[in-house]
Amino acid sequence: MAGGFVGGGVSERAHLYEYRITGYFIFACIVAALGGSLFGYDLGVSGGVTSMDDFLKEFFPKVYRRKQMHLKETDYCKYDNQILTLFTSSLYFVGLVSTFAASHVTRNKGRRASIIVGSISFFLGAVLNAAAINIAMLIIGRIFLGIGIGFGNQEEGKDFYLGTAG
Fold this sequence. Notes:
This protein is mostly helical. The protein is about 70% helix and about 0% strand. Keywords: Membrane, Sugar transport, Symport, Transmembrane, Transmembrane helix, Transport.
């Protein structure tokens, strides 16, 4: 029966669902926060980088010129460049999709292979973004970083689920 009521009274099983904070619950919250921090950290970094004048001059000159024309106005919703949006969002979309691929790799090849794929992806993404000389290199680097985050996020959750974190 919906609502947990029997004949207007509290269900006999209500005591089974009492509020308790356990070590497991606290640890689950920490693991969830760490997984979210992978995306949150990148959001803070990429948001700061995409508003830097040197970055905009080098990779998005149209956005930079538009920003310079409207210096006395707020920057809110002025970055309406589709390529800049692709640069920012590619990591998050690929991270989501690669989490499912990471699950498949872990199931078929083991956790070690999954961790190696994630680590190599992080490395390649960092190298490509650091050495980027054009927008394509930036976006491909972000895609590799997204794969690394997706694999890392999946492994973090699996560690917690299996009780092997730490």
